[in-house]
Amino acid sequence: MGYKLYLEKFNEILKELSSEYIIYAPILIKGGANFSDTDRVRYGQISKVEDIVFDEKSHFSFKEVLLPQSETLLYFTEDEVREAAPKSKGSIVFLRSCDLHAVKRMDDIYLRNGFEDYYYKRLRENTKFILMGCERTFENCFCVDMGTNKSNNYDGYIRVENHEVYFDSKCETFDILLEKKEADTIEVEPKFISENNVTVNIPEELSLDVMKSTMWEEYNQRCIACGRCNFVCPTCTCFTMQDIFYQDNKNVGERRRVWSSCQVDGFTDMAGGHSFRQNKGQRMRFKVLHKVYDYKKKWGYHMCVGCGRCDDICPEYISFSNCINKLQSACDEVK
Predict the structure, then answer these.
(1) Which side of the chain, N or C, has fewer Cβ within a 10 Å radius?
(2) What share of the chain is helix, strand, coil (3-state, %, to 5)?
(3) What are 62-82's pLDDT values in tens digits?
């Protein structure tokens, strides 16, 4: 159901929701970027609509709400193991269509991949998503070609125009509060973009033979294995485990799940000193083919959602979209 109400009234709704939910959205962090006096847009807690950045793409994705960068799973002593308590509140996340599609990929990995991850599930079940439409395409986005520029799998959709909020609700919680504020009932149609400045072409005949191509050798020199592309990506979900021992008692501590990356040194280290993909070109090959080849073999759609954040963040100006567009030549090369 669609609603229209003044911005101040919607802020009152957010205040009521904050008693049960932590509300996250893209916000401007002054001086939070890489260089002096430059700003960063990333996810943080909000209390009012005016805090939300609607006209820029967030440099980091929403995923740390569902998969924290460092998450304590359990505490241990000499003779006891205790599960870490969940967050006392649920979460509400404002996000764009590409990121909402990324939630589906995260659900695939943590809920439908032969098991259910307990820690992910308890956060996911208490999270609601409010879709932010894109009025225009952003730099390096290629969501249209990836089929993620549109989505209707949201709990709410928001558009703000002239101090008025237009809201499409698919959630009883939102309906109750909107009706309580006597919001006008109108038809609200989400706005989506239909064209990007960047386009990608994934070959229909793409196969693992492309692994033999020489195209991957370029990245041996260019990539510095920093892992930034993985950390900003909304569908990269790899982690490592860390046991932390407290200084006062070496037999007491906690086990944490911490983000990791297929691009960084040591990711594939195994017992006995074995390690795979030490070559940076091989790591790039693994990432690319995972995003646009083998994931689709299993799930029927690509892992990459075309948000372009990997291109935005790379300090060596490596473009993932350009890499995808080289695959056709690579296919021809190995035939």
Answers:
(1) C
(2) 35, 20, 45
(3) 999 999 999 999 999 999 999
